[in-house]
Automatic annotation (TrEMBL):
Record SUPFAM superfamilies: FAD-binding/transporter-associated domain-like
Organism: Mesorhizobium ciceri
Record domain FAD-binding PCMH-type: where: 12-179
Keyword Oxidoreductase attributed: yes
UniProt xrefs under PROSITE patterns: FAD_PCMH
Gene3D superfamilies (UniProt xref): 3.30.465.10, 3.30.70.2520, Uridine Diphospho-n-acetylenolpyruvylglucosamine Reductase, domain 2, Vanillyl-alcohol Oxidase, Chain A, domain 4
Keyword Ligase attached: no
Protein name from the UniProt record: FAD-binding protein
Pfam families: ALO, FAD_binding_4
Keyword annotations of the record: FAD, Flavoprotein, Oxidoreductase
Entry's Gene Ontology cellular component terms: membrane
Length: 425
């Protein structure tokens, strides 16, 4: 059997000695103790950085999935960490609960989404890890350990965004909300207006985000708010067709930016506006088929428009091959030690590059702009930072590293990539 693993975009691959799918925490504990190291755990492989890569063992939790128990009064659900978000949405809807927010897709495992601070958008809405009530892990010695928000707050704050380095999550209890319905609106407007009114527009909705369409001067704004109205039909998704148009114009007119811009603007002006009401689980996720690589930085909220303006200028002056829209979101502050949203309201800016092309020149040129504005990188998306730089961005860094040593005293979860991130010799 081939032991090849690769991530969603194909940019990261590994040939570990062993790929294993334990069926329970006991089997998992044995593997953590005895399998060839380093031992890394995979979710759905949707990270763009080599977090999962290992020359030793890669553990898949695909057999550890599903609902364990729930509390209807508190809207809490205990689930196995290998559960994918798609099935999780349906499990929760079936017990009258909803995830308070979601990102772009529903393909990740909950353990993987927690592992990198995966987030959606909304100034009062935290990333998935802020929903944690209890966490069960298998630690680096193969022992099962349980932590609760009430009583083990520090450990929850240490483990919540854990990069597969603070034990293998086996079960988590999530604080959800009662199932709900959303009204979602989407329309195109000039980027100048979007940047001018950024703070007000992002704050005016429960969840708001926008995409800037490179070389067009236009943004596509998307807002969702609670609704009691009857559901209406969700229009068919046009994102993939839109991408194909943008790629065609890129390929034929890369060096004619003004003509390209004119054609994109006239195409954008015809993008149909959307306005529909649906249950929460039918609103957030999109189907992403065109493979890309991505960098996302999390900046102090008020710096978002200035940083984005610089990224747009860089792209349009020097990187005509770029055609993927840039995504701009907001995320609520939290108290988790390795959370990029630690103690600050955030504006997240994501740039994408077709997976068929080398993303590094574009990413390397953009990263200093994000860093100049005080950005913290998304843990699962491309960045070049190592321990010395990361430590300066995270006030509780030393506490997090001490918690990691307690959980994994023999560095079983430390691959070369993780050693660079954490500064482990
Ligand atoms: C098309 C696409 C769209 C995306 N959209 C968004 C978005 O909207 N918002 C956003 O924030 N990100 C987004 N991402 C990034 C993605 O959500 C994160 O990289 C996420 O971590 C991937 O989850 P995964 O299950 O694939 O985990 P993996 O990438 O497989 O693993 C991520 C990390 O979690 C660890 N891990 C996984 N399972 C466990 C476990 N049980 N216990 C301990 N550690 C574990 C791994 O070791 C690794 O360190 C997107 C990625 C893609 C490809």
């Amino acid at each position: 059997m081939s032991n090849t693993w690769s991530n969603w975009s194909g940019f990261v691959s590994a040939e570990p000695k062993l790929i294993a799918s334990p069926g329970d925490a006991g089997e998992l504990g044995d593997l953590v103790r005895t399998a060839p190291g380093p031992v890394r755990v995979a979710g759905a492989g949707h990270s763009f950085t080599p977090l999962v890569k290992s020359q030793g063992t890669i553990l898949s939790l695909e057999r550890l999935e599903g609902l364990v128990s729930h509390d209807a009064q508190k809207h809490q659900a205990r689930v196995r960490a290998g559960t994918r978000l798609g099935p999780l949405m349906h499990i929760l809807q079936g017990i009258g609960q909803g995830l308070p927010n979601m990102g772009d897709i529903d393909r990740q495992a909950i353990g993987g989404a927690l592992g990198t601070a995966t987030h959606g958008s909304g100034p009062t809405l935290g990333a998935y890890h802020t929903q944690l009530e209890t966490v069960q892990i298998v630690d680096g010695l193969g022992k099962v350990r349980d932590f609760k928000r009430a009583g083990d707050r520090d450990m929850i704050h240490a483990i919540g965004v854990a990069l597969g380095a603070f034990g293998v999550l086996t079960e988590v209890t999530l604080n959800n909300i009662a199932t709900y319905r959303l009204r979602r609106r989407k329309y195109v407007l000039p980027i100048t207006e979007m940047l001018r009114d950024f703070e007000a527009m992002m704050a005016a909705h429960r969840s708001a985000e926008f995409y800037y369409i490179p070389f067009s001067g236009y943004a596509q704004f998307i807002a969702s708010d609670f609704s009691d109205a009857a559901p209406t039909t969700r229009p068919p998704e046009e994102d993939e067709a839109g991408l194909r148009t943008l790629r065609r114009l890129r390929t034929s007119l890369a060096w004619l930016p003004s003509l390209r811009g004119r054609l994109i603007r006239s195409a954008a002006a015809k993008f149909p506006a959307e306005d529909y009401v649906q249950d929460w689980l039918n609103v957030y996720a999109s189907d992403r088929q065109t493979k890309f690589n991505e960098m996302e930085y999390h900046l102090p909220f008020e710096e978002g428009p200035k940083a984005l303006a610089e990224i747009i200028e860089l792209t349009e002056k020097r990187f005509p091959e770029v055609y993927f829209p840039m995504e701009v979101r907001s995320v609520a502050p939290d108290q988790f030690w390795l959370s990029p949203f630690y103690n600050r309201l955030t504006c997240s800016i994501a740039i994408h590059h077709d997976a068929a092309n080398d993303p590094l020149p574009f990413m390397r040129a953009a990263e200093p702009i994000f860093r100049r504005y005080g950005g913290r990188p998304h843990w699962g998306k491309m960045h070049s930072l190592k321990a010395a730089e990361l430590k300066k961005l995270y006030p509780r860094w030393d506490d997090a590293m001490a918690a990691r040593r307690d959980i994994d005293p023999e560095n079983r979860f430390v691959s070369p990539y993780m050693a660079g991130l954490f500064g482990i010799e």
